[in-house]
Amino acid sequence: MSIIECKNVSKSFGEKVAIKDINLEIPEGKIFGLLGPNGAGKTTLIRIINRIAIPNSGEVLFKGAPITQRDVEKIGYMPEERGLYRKMKVGEQAMYLARLKGMSTSEARKELKEWFIRFGIQSWWDKKVEELSKGMAQKLQFITTVVHKPSLMILDEPFSGFDPVNAELIRQEVLRLKDEGATIILSTHNMESVEELCDNIALINKSRLVITGGVDDIRREYGNNNVELVYTDEQGRHNVVLPRETDGASTLKTFIDKGVQINSYKELMPRMNDIFIKLVTEGGNE
């Protein structure tokens, strides 16, 4: 089932076309990568899904019905442009944003305290936001995005500015939230994160949808149909690239009969980074 469906969604600002005829389905309970170069239209689409912007044509459905403001309350949105009230205390800021999402005071305090402990920032509850480092502020932004347990979370460049340790912390939390049933739209330029986390992706380039589908399916589609065989013999370890056969067992048997040790036999698929560059530099669907 799709949690979000975009049907022929277009948006222009004056003569500037931001997105054009976007048809897209985001499956429920998955991590969905929304990809594209700067200025491609990703942020405009995200704002339309959040009803921050209204499309010139087309419609967005939430679980099969036109999206409403009440549906938006079930969405957690962390924009790339982080926004916190710098003069407020950290705890007050977090409580304020949680209450805006409909949480009671007691529920918000309980959940926030648990998140602060999980992220190791419990000692900052009474500090001012302006005292936080960029990384600490981004932890706070993430917490306030997900604390009300939205069914759909939209994270725009969530790993930006984090050191490797904290980036991994966020990755693990994203996976945990997915396991608990959340749908996550991940807008990022980090193709390594896309391969690690995303089940499906959509690539937007020059305002149009270029490709969408499962990550493994897309990587396989843009592959060269080869496999890599790694084996060890008396001369040492060897890597051999071979055309993929219908019956890979016969290839393996040939090498085994030679008395070599098979270390691995796997399909070679291109990296998402290479596919991204290829589709964008070739103009996508133009």
Q: Can you walk through the features of this model?
A:
It is a single chain. By secondary structure, this protein is of the alpha/beta class. The chain has a domain at 224-268. It contains ten helices and 13 strands. Strands 6-7-8-3-9-10 form a six-stranded mixed β-sheet, with helices on both faces. It has a four-stranded antiparallel β-sheet with strand order 2-1-4-5, covered by helices on one side. Helix 3 packs across helix 4 and helix 3 packs parallel to helix 5. The relative contact order is 0.14. The model has no long low-confidence stretch (mean pLDDT 90).
What tags apply to this protein structure?
286 residues; 6-stranded mixed sheet; 4-stranded antiparallel sheet; globular
